[in-house]
Amino acid sequence: MLALISDHASGQLQYVNPFIGTDRMGHTYPGATVPFGMVQLSPDTDTIPYEMNDTYNRDVYKYCAGYQYADSTIVGFSHTHFSGTGHSDLGDILLMPTTGTLQLNPGTADAPEKGYRSRFAHASEKASPGYYAVTLEDHDILAELTATSRTGIHRYTFNRGGDAHLILDMDHGIYNYDGKNVWTFIRVENDTLVTGYRMTNGWARTRSLYFAISFSRPVESYGFVNDATAQVYKGFWRRFNQHMNFPEAAGEKIRGHFDFSMKPGEQLTVRVALSPVSTAGAVANMIAEAPGTDFDAARLAAERMWEDELGRVKVKMMNEEQMVSFYTALYHAYLSPTIFMDSDRRYKGLDQNIHTADDFDNYTTFSLWDTYRALHPLFTILQQRRTADMINSMLAHFDQSAHDMLPVWSHHANENWCMIGYHSVPVIADAIVKKIPGFDYLRALEACVTTARNGWYDGLDDYMRMGYVPDERTGSSVSVTLEYAYDDWCIAQAISSMPEGEPGAASPGTGDDPLRESPGNSISYPDINDPLCESPGSSLSYPDFSDLHREFLTRSRNYMNVWDPSSGYMRPRGSDGKFRAEFDVLSTHGQGFIEGNAWNYSLYVPHDPDALISLMGGKKRFVQHLDSLFTMHLPDEFFAETEDITREGIIGNYVHGNEPSHHVPYLFNYAGAPRKTQYWVRHIMDTKYLPAPDGLSGNDDCGQMSAWYIFSALGIYPVAPGSGIYDLGSPLVKEATISLENGKTFTVTAVNQGPENVYVRKVELNGKKLDRLYITHDEIMNGGSLVFYMSKSGY
Fold first, then answer.
1. Rounded to 10 degrees, what is the CA torsion of 583, 589, 592, 596?
2. Among 716, 710, 792, CA closest to 753
């Protein structure tokens, strides 16, 4: 599959294969984007609807990123995509070039000639960071894509010329259904500029996106159709012919065409800028980022952006395939979160008002149930400035929230409430513990505590009152309890790490007033014995932080309240205090867990593994339990109802294809069996991350799956973000050099590295033998060297 990578790439870019994960479960896209860019310009290969006959259409799940490698037709190129998610939205502003007879229906995969879609072959596809190309066979058009942060740039070469059309499909979308488009609007400003917007009601229920399209040559004619059901009220627009050369179109299902006469070999360059604010903002973004039509210059600029980011980590691996896996993982890690503001720093907020991000870059696409585990900890090493911006974006979300909540899963000025927990908290706490500069620690702590005390949210009132979420309250009661407990521990860690002498002081270098209030969200902390006491709107008042620390440290032990010693697993418990009678420890459906079973989720106490080991009978029995997890057989029937778990992501009963178990291979360290951690970590890297379109064993989930690989390949992993430590595993790299933002360098070396040498004989940090199974964040950021001495036996 290496031949699919663009031959234009060099340096680290030559090892990035954007097609990895585009087949089956990976849910990645192959198109053009820049690091953390707002535009993700990529091909969509089908138009699978979200529902059929009022029933969820399970086939739509394959198209979370719009593209499936197994398909043989392309519908068009849309400008917004998620990378690796297990639910979806977006697919905005689809363009498709055609020739010959005008067709405004997309057609079908079985009969593409009946619509504007086209057949294609993978032999004609090329992709590298910032670039994608494919030949559309039905029309003999070479389509090339590149991007800036806010602008997608298309170049179409019409090999056979003739009557050419550029289709603009405003009805197209990912996870589409009738009624998802609330309204679309197109305005022809002149013969080279078109503007408009699209409003949708989907995963984000109140989403609007504005655009500006510029053509490199004048449009000769154009027209629009609206496939929506006829409106009862037609107004006085009805007296005009709005279908041909009428400069405005509005409706729920607008498709347009822009017509050109092209000679054989002639090219059309199209720039499409996006804005969350206005069409004027989209035009301004285009002028700021892509003022000309030089496609090659734009591509070169995108590649340089990727070179700058990927070049911060230089590695030598054992073979080229591992180089491709590593740098593609790093590439995927830098696809989200995504910038969400105009070049003038204005953005649409959660309150649907327009705000200005004066002192931070505003980000969106926070898949936090996934990414708090490894992606955001990776950013605390490689992307500290962006980490501060992302946290400031979360705090802006909190300020604008009608619920006084930090993001749960947010995108495009919407909270979509997907998944469980309040995992903005570990991201923020981890940054406080690691002393990341650039945000107000007091304001951040206040937001964390307020979020964690919102009794109305997902059983939190019962959790605070009873110490667990009752079974009858939610179908994921055990998972929710376990994840709340970890999040609460993170708050306790953040409190412990507040600068001494000034409780709640601002972060180093912010210059902010450490006692600054957040308007409309101020709180006073109640008595520890009254966790449900709230005082919204009261003045900001901080008692002795030891009380607050004690509250959340106590809450962090609530995992014990769903531990059933009779079964040896975490188990659903009713409000009457009794454990559920009917209980299947293998099933992933209806057993009190989300996207997992009792075997895997019972190991989710990342903040207190020693206590977990004690609950499970001590180190020897714990190791035996983990051995069984990795070597037993889990029949398909136990995960058949969970679309996020498939056979390719499973080892025994261990599910690497989904996030809740990602820390589990490292738990052998805590039970005195580090060689087993080393064995399984290497096994996972060798078998679950392959340099092929189907090389990912599960959804990449906005970079979390990739971040696990990056950390593990470097020989470390953050079992408990918020602790400030990284557990040691078995590195896959031969050498790695990390250029840190503070100007220092941290290196990792594996002496005697080899495919069979998976065990670590000894580790040295800065030339001294390390007598522990972890290193600290400070030890990395201070610069230095970590050396693993590898062997076949570990001795």
1. 110
2. 792
The position carrying tokens 């927990």 is 421
The pLDDT of residue 505: 43
Listed in sequence order, the residues at least 6 apart from 794 whose beta carbon sits closer than 8 Å to its beta carbon are 675, 678, 759, 760, 761
Tell how far CA 387 is from the center of its chain: 14
Mean pLDDT throughout 72-97?
98
Q: Sign of the CA dihedral 541, 546, 547, 552?
A: positive
How far is C-alpha 450 from the geometric centre of its chain's CA atoms? 25
Q: Is the pTM of this model over 0.90?
A: yes
CB contact at 8 A, 19 and 30: yes
Query: Whole-angstrom Cα distance, residue 504 to residue 609?
Result: 29
Contacting residues for 37 by C-beta, under 8 A, at least 6 apart: 147, 148, 149, 150, 338, 339
**What is the strand order of the sheet 774-776 is part of?**
716-717, 725-728, 774-776
Dihedral (CA of 225, 230, 236, 239) sign? positive
C-alpha span between 562 and 556 (Å, rounded): 13
The answer, yes or no, to whether residue 762 has pLDDT greater than 50, is yes
Q: Is the dihedral of CA 668, 674, 675, 681 positive or negative?
A: positive
Here the tokens at position 486 are 């970890």
Distance in angstroms (rounded) separating the CA atoms of residues 96 and 69? 19
700 contacts 21 by C-beta, under 8 angstroms: yes
Q: Distance (Å, rounded) from C-alpha 777 to C-alpha 434?
A: 7
- Structural tokens at position 366: 């926070």
The DSSP-derived string for 391-413 is HHHHHHHHHH-TT----SEEETT
**Token pair in block for residue 202:** 């989907």
Using an 8 Å Cβ cutoff, are 498 and 441 in contact? yes
Classify residue 234 by its DSSP letter: -
Name the 3-class secondary structure at 14: helix
Task: State how far the Cα of 435 lies from the Cα of 497, in Å rounded to an integer.
Answer: 8
Dihedral pair phi/psi, residue 268, rounded to 5°? -125, 125
Cβ partners under 8 Å of residue 543, min gap 6 = 525
Neighbours of 759 (CB within 10 A): 20
What is the DSSP secondary-structure string of 302-347? HHHHHHHHHTTEEEE-SSHHHHHHHHHHHHHHTS-SEE-S-TTSEE
221-252 pLDDT per residue, tens? 999 999 888 778 888 988 999 999 999 999 99
Q: How far apart are CA 666 and CA 708, in angstroms?
A: 12
Residue pLDDT, tens place only, 574-620: 999 999 999 999 999 999 999 999 999 999 999 999 999 999 999 99
Residues present in the chain in total: 795
One-character DSSP codes across 260-275: EEE-TTEEEEEEEEEE
User: Taking 60 as the threshold, does the pLDDT of residue 5 lie above it?
Assistant: no
Structure tokens at 21: 């994960």
Contacts of 552 (CB under 8 A, 6+ apart): 449, 452, 488, 489, 491, 492, 495
Does residue 98 sit in helix, strand or coil? strand
The tokens describing 49, both together, are: 């609807």
Distance CA 351, CA 547 (A): 34
Report pLDDT digits (tens) over 766-780. Answer: 999 999 999 999 999
CB burial of residue 111 (10 Å; 0-12, 13-18, 19+) = exposed
How much of the chain is helix, strand and coil, in % rounded to 5?
30, 25, 45
Using alpha carbons, list the distances in angstroms from residue 422 to 452, 526, 569, 723. 7, 20, 24, 17
Q: What is the mean pLDDT of residues 18-36?
A: 97
